[in-house]
């Protein structure tokens, strides 16, 4: 398993000989699927924009309540909110913009031999994960059809969580798991990955068991389930 990084100059990702890949694939290797996170789903699930909206709403309500409790008028409370609203709006736009940039800069590629993750906004990092270094993969499907595909690495292989985030399975810090996050039509992508992994390792394909919402996903490939 290899990874590397390059600073971009000129047009974004001009250095890529193939979109999403750091080098031209060998003649006998073929791209099976390539895609990027859905930025709206990424904003909801990785950057927690809806939760932040509720948080800021609670802060504004508390501010207005405080002004009223101190004897202020409704006009005073409104003026106090008007002062804070631009800051709240800026924060939400900034975080949503980061989600969009993160999704725009990420390209996930599945070939018949490996997974390649090109991620990053300013500093681009590419992770090459050969199928032989994958112990298992899971699928967590969401109600909008998008989903997450976490990848369990073999043995002592490890990629730092901070290098991966937000393309990492949440809360797995000791043994970080790379994750194809908020992938559109995730069930079809997971099925394709499972079949390619099985062919590469000369093993029977494991059907993808999927779960809606926030529950754990089933095993797609390998010897252990990604829960």
TrEMBL record:
Membrane-spanning intervals of the chain: 47-68, 80-103, 115-131
List the Pfam families: bPH_2
Keyword Kinase recorded? no
- YdbS-like PH domain ranges (all copies): 104-193
InterPro entries per the UniProt record, alphabetical = puhB_PGC (IPR054839), YdbS-like_PH (IPR005182)
Q: Which domain of life is it from?
A: Bacteria
Sorted keywords for this record are:
Membrane, Transmembrane, Transmembrane helix
What protein name is recorded for this chain? Hypothetical membrane protein
């Amino acid at each position: 398993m290899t990874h590397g990084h390059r600073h971009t100059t000129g047009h974004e990702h001009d250095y890529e000989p193939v979109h999403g890949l750091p080098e031209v694939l060998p003649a006998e290797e073929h791209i099976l699927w390539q895609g990027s996170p859905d930025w709206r789903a990424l904003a909801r699930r990785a950057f927690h924009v809806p939760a932040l909206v509720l948080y800021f709403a609670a802060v504004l309500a508390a501010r207005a309540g405080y002004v009223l409790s101190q004897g202020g008028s409704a006009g005073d409370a409104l003026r106090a909110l008007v002062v804070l609203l631009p800051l709240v709006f800026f924060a939400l736009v900034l975080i949503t913009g980061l989600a969009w940039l993160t999704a725009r800069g990420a390209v996930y590629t599945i070939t018949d031999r490996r997974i390649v993750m090109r991620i990053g906004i300013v500093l681009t990092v590419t992770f090459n994960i050969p199928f032989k270094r994958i112990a298992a993969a899971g699928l967590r499907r969401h109600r909008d059809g998008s989903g997450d595909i976490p990848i369990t690495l073999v043995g002592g292989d490890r990629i730092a969580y901070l290098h991966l985030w937000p393309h990492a399975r949440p809360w797995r810090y000791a043994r970080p798991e790379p994750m194809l996050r908020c992938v559109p039509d995730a069930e079809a992508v997971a099925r394709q990955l499972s079949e390619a992994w099985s062919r590469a390792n000369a093993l029977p394909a494991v059907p993808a068991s999927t779960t809606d919402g926030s529950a754990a996903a089933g095993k797609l490939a390998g010897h252990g389930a990604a829960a």
